[in-house]
From TrEMBL:
The keyword Protease does not apply. Pfam families: BC10. GO terms for cellular component: membrane. The keyword Membrane applies. This is Apoptosis inducing factor BLCAP.
Amino acid sequence: MYCLQWLLPVLLIPKPLNPALWFSHSMFMGFYLLSFLLERKPCTICALVFLAALFLICYSCWGNCFLYHCSDSPLPDSAHDPGVVGT
């Protein structure tokens, strides 16, 4: 379970508030995970635990899934604020 210490923080990284950055964020996270899995070669149990946690987070639509935005969940109020785009 040593290899999970590098995978679990990935689930805690929040999505950007600006919807225009969601694609870039999901591509970055996908490439990070792919490169991590190819370079570090985590054990099968760690990889399955991480994929199960990722599936449960994305399936429940809690809003922190970096793969896609659930259509049922509303955008945060600050996503419509034009001041957020400049920060």
